[in-house]
Specification:
It is a single chain. By secondary structure, this protein is an alpha/beta fold. It has a domain at about 1-95 and about 150-170: ATPase, nucleotide binding domain (Nucleotidyltransferase, domain 5, 2-Layer Sandwich). Helix content is about 30%, strand content about 30%. It has 5 helices and 9 strands. It has helices at about 35-50, 70-85, 95-100, 130-140, 155-160, and strands spanning about 1-5, 10-20, 20-30, 55-65, 90-95, 105-110, 115-120, 125-130, 145. The strands form 2 sheets. Strands 3-2-1-4-5 form a 5-stranded mixed β-sheet. The N and C termini lie far apart (about 45 Å).
Length: about 180
C-alpha cells in the first residue's frame, strides 16, 4: 500500500512516500515563503522519481498545524483534495504530535516566525502560543524540546489506530488570532 504524508506547517515543504508503512522516499525543502509555488511540482517529482502517479496512492496523511497560517491551509487543502478525488482514507496529526514522535520531553515546542506553540506531552490538545520573548522566559524554568527533525518514519505507526477522517472535516488548526482582528 502506497501512502503519502504532506506537511507545510513551517518553512519547509515535507512530502514523504511510504510503502506498506515503511518510508521509501521524501522531499524536505526549505522555501520560507511561496509554498504554493513549489509544493505541487515537488509532489509530482517525488511520485515520478518512484514511478508512481497519484492514482497509486491508497492513503493520505497530513499535518494540520498549528503553524504557518498559509502553509497549513495549503497543505490541508491539497491533502483533502487528493483524499476526496481519489476516494482514499485521510488521517491527520498536529505539528505537536509530529514533534512528540520518539521524544520524551515534558513540553513540546513547534516554532513559528514570531513565536512558538507549546503543549505538555500528557495533553497535546492544550496548545498555547508564546511570542519569542515570552518563550525565552518560559524556557528558563521549563524543560522543553525544540525538535526540528521529526521522525517521519514513525507517522504510519502513530496513525495506524486512528480512524480515517471525512476529508471535508479535516481542517487546519489555528491557535493564534489574525493580526489586527478582534477575537471577541
Amino acid at each position: 500500500m502506497w501512502s503519502l504524508f504532506i506537511d507545510t506547517h513551517y518553512k519547509n515543504i515535507v512530502i514523504v512516500l511510504y510503502k506498506d508503512d515503511n518510508l521509501v522516499d521524501m522531499i524536505n525543502k526549505e522555501v520560507k515563503k511561496d509554498h504554493s509555488v513549489f509544493i505541487m511540482p515537488l509532489l509530482q517529482d517525488l511520485l515520478t522519481k518512484n514511478n508512481l502517479t497519484v492514482q497509486d496512492l491508497q492513503a493520505i496523511y497530513v499535518c494540520r498545524g498549528p503553524g504557518s497560517f498559509t502553509g497549513i491551509r495549503l497543505c490541508v487543502t491539497i491533502a483533502k483534495t487528493l483524499a476526496y478525488t481519489l476516494n482514499i482514507p485521510i488521517k491527520s496529526l498536529t505539528s505537536l504530535e509530529l514533534v512528540s514522535l520518539g521524544n520524551n520531553a515534558f513540553y513540546l515546542v513547534v516554532k513559528e516566525n514570531n513565536g512558538v506553540f507549546i503543549a505538555e506531552r500528557k495533553n497535546l490538545d492544550n496548545i498555547k502560543y508564546y511570542s519569542n520573548l515570552e518563550y525565552q522566559e518560559f524556557k528558563k524554568s521549563h524543560e522543553v524540546l525544540e525538535n526540528e527533525n521529526p521522525l517521519y518514519q514513525e507517522i504510519p505507526l502513530y496513525l495506524k489506530n486512528k480512524q480515517p477522517e471525512n476529508p471535508h472535516a479535516v481542517n487546519p488548526l489555528y491557535i493564534k488570532g489574525i493580526s489586527g482582528v478582534d477575537d471577541n
